[in-house]
Amino acid sequence: MGLKLFKKKEEEEDEEEIEEEEEEEEDEEEIEEEETRSSSSSGGSDETVEKIMERLNEIDNKLPRIDIAINNLKKEVDSLKQDLQKMDDSLKDMLTLYEVVSSQINPFVGSSKVTALSIQRLDNMEKELRELEQLVNDVVDDLRMLFRKNVSLKDIVNQVLYEEVSL
């Protein structure tokens, strides 16, 4: 048994020596690879830097075009929003008019809040229209009076201005 143990120890020592030699060879190979990488990377890094610079120049050239395209798209979107808003307003007006007409013609349709508001709006508009007609008629009458009596418009303006200043 003593011989077997001794032989095993020798074999283990031989194996350890072989492993150490292999590790040394691997270390040397790694060092050589790193040297080749560093020598090729200096040439390769120049190429990568050039590629990166070319790509940056391409991007710099495209940025103004992209910016203009984005601005144009924003304008188009704003225009579409305005058009949609106009269409929405028109549709609301049409529906309101429809409800008003249907409530006047169809006796079975009750007056809803929307119909009541629409009728109130129409009444207010008619009232404002009458007031404006009266105002225009008053202005026309005043002008007729001015021209019949040969009153100077300049004197009236000066008198009104003088009254405003004195107040």
Give your account of this protein's structure.
α1 crosses α2 (113-148). The longest helix has 104 residues, at 2-105. Helices cover 92% and strands 0% of the residues. The protein is built from 3 helices and no strands. It is mainly α. It has helices spanning 2-105, 113-148, 153-166.
Q: What are the key terms here?
A:
mainly alpha; 92% helix; 0% strand; single chain; 167 residues
Order of helices and strands: HHH
Q: What structural class results from the helix and strand content?
A: mainly alpha
- What's the β-strand tally? 0
Q: Evaluate the radius of gyration.
A: 49 Å
Q: N- to C-terminal separation?
A: 136 Å
Topology:
Layout: H1 2-105, H2 113-148, H3 153-166
Helix pairs in contact: 1-2
What's the quick description here?
The chain has 167 residues and is mainly α. Helix content is 92%, strand content 0%. The protein is built from three helices and no strands.
